Amino acid sequence: MPLKTLIRKEFTLELRRKSVISGLMLYLFSTAFICYLTFSLRQNQITPLVWSALFWITILFTVINSVAKSFIGEKKGREIYLYSIAAPESIILSKIIYNAALTTLLAFTGFLVFIVLLKNPVIDLMYFLLILFLGSIGFASSLTLLSGIAAKANNSQILMTVLSFPVVISVLLITVKVTKNCIDGLDRSISTNDVITLVAINCLVTAASYLLFPYIWRS
Amino acid sequence: MDVPRLNIVNETVRALYFHVPMWFGMIVLLAISVYYSIQYLRKPSLQTDISSFEFAHTGTLLNILGLVTGMIWANYTWGSPWHGDPKQNGAAITLLLYLAYFVLRGSIDNEDQRARLSAVYNIFAFAAMIPLIFIIPRMTSSMHPGSGGNPGFNMYDLDSKMRLVFYPAVTGWILLGVWIASLRVRIRIVHEKLANLEHE
Fold this sequence. Notes:
The structure holds two protein chains of two kinds. By secondary structure, chain A is an all-alpha fold. Chain A has one domain (3-217). Helix content of chain A is 86%, strand content 0%. Chain A has helices at residues 3-16, 18-38, 48-72, 76-85, 88-118, 125-152, 156-184, 188-217. In chain A, α3 runs antiparallel to α5 (88-118) and α5 (88-118) packs across α8 (188-217). Chain A is globular. Chain B has helices at residues 16-42, 46-77, 86-106, 111-139, 161-199. In chain B, α1 packs antiparallel against α2 (46-77), α1 (16-42) crosses α4 (111-139) and α1 runs parallel beside α5 (161-199). The longest helix of chain B has 39 residues, at 161-199. In chain B, 74% of the residues lie in helices and 0% in strands. By secondary structure, chain B is mainly alpha-helical. Chain B has one domain. The chains are: A mainly alpha, B mainly alpha.
């Protein structure tokens, strides 16, 4: 079955049960709102560093929750059906592409909510959006395979968080660092190396998922 | 044997013979563990599964030892055991990664599935670890010698006397780790065989 059909299937399924995506949006909004309420009267205490920490924590947990359901929620019968009609490589690629779209959407929405509630300290906006985009792809590509692993184990939800933290941390470290540069409005050439590394990590992780997924899919 | 006199570091420079070889040993053991995981995925067998698990186990032991010796050394030279140095953080995250690997193994009941999934996670985690301990620390400033504009140790070690101890120490720690791991593998295999005999 071609890749395009699989991607379209993911999107149609998602749009058909709107409860999941609205649930995720609500999760994002509630987390941002908690941040806002905690600081409500002391908005001036939100230094750029605090802002970036709050922002990335919110994005990270929303994204882990959203990607986790890509395999954990699947019904047994549907998996067997998919197994019989599609190659595992195209399944993982379609899931990664779909998850990348979803996490990018969530990250951009999160940024909007943060702007509304907690001001916008970012000076170099375009570069920050680029990092947001690359970071979302990184999260999606590293978490999709882990979701497949966690779905097979007993306590999937806890395991998902435990397994994903050490793997996404390298993406997170780079995004946090470049976010700080964007907030300070530093020259773009300073962050070029980090952006290249981020792209390299994305390629590495996607390639590893592509190669390894057939083995977990078989069971 | 005499060691070079350096400010602050003084005699503690001898920790070089323990601290650094432990990390070499850890990398080698974890790489062997990944090798066995790949072998397992190519051709599943009990032997390769146990080997990859035990090599990861011993690698984690060396990781903890490396962290502890580093903390003791840092306590004397940098003033306190934990500094949030990029390499320190990278090592701690590596530790978390392998602890997650053990948790994963613990939470799957089916033996075949456990072996296969943990092999996949082992390879994936090792791939994700490479930028964490080899690339990112080199891009940020670190208090470790040889990075962030700090001179490496070989600059002071003019007569290369320390290498006389250092290289054998590296070999020794690697071989010690491999030896411990292979002993554990053999014990595990004997255990499995005994369990099978009791079944019959």
